[in-house]
Amino acid sequence: MTEHCLWRFSRALHRAINDRQREDLLDEDVDWAIYGPIDMFPFLGARRGKAAVVEVITQIADNVRVHRFDREKIMLGADSAASMMRYTLTALDSNKPISLRLAHFAQFKAGLLVSIRVLVDTFDLVEQTLGHPIHLPKIAS
Amino acid sequence: MTEHCLWRFSRALHRAINDRQREDLLDEDVDWAIYGPIDMFPFLGARRGKAAVVEVITQIADNVRVHRFDREKIMLGADSAASMMRYTLTALDSNKPISLRLAHFAQFKAGLLVSIRVLVDTFDLVEQTLGHPIHLPKIAS
Description:
Oligomer: homodimer
Shape of chain A: globular
Structural class of chain A: alpha+beta
């Protein structure tokens, strides 16, 4: 049984972020989105095409370093994968540790990424980045 | 081919929230978590066991009404499912519309839910609930 594309993609992405190694992991027409507040984090949001995604991965590499990740949930299809993951990162500008939960849905073609959607627990991310809690009213009955 | 458990669970959950209909959809020992700021939304967070989950679904029903949901991504396993979804809700106290993206990973046993983990784009949720944007500094280079 050959290795699922997800594992190669995951290793290549982490090497791209931490070591700036570039490997061929993206389809020319890749469709990429990480949902979140782009005013605070300009490297979040949607990108289309290999050049734009290579650029945004470089921007992510300029801002964070990945220390550890745990895949809490995973589902694999023939050319698709979804995971819920917990990341431990360092924000490079402040040297602050950030612990982050995210979910991704990815689609591959011929071993290359053609589509990924990433959802992040963004409020938690914002509070950790600010370094202090945001006061919230209690809304529920 | 029989219907996947996800569809029955999804219908039953939406009926429980909107119409307070109770159907047997939970395993006795169900493990439930919706990650998010529980100070603002006490019906988020972790629950264990059928009674606690029935109670939290009632709390959710006290606070929101589901108008519409679109499954943007889905993966189905034999007894498991993951989706990325976009919900249109009304917050019942303020009558405010809320549009929400979430991802869930669910596990079923004998047709009943045994485990679910839900990740929400929480910053977007908080801003929509407050009704105004939270000012954020731009952090990235």
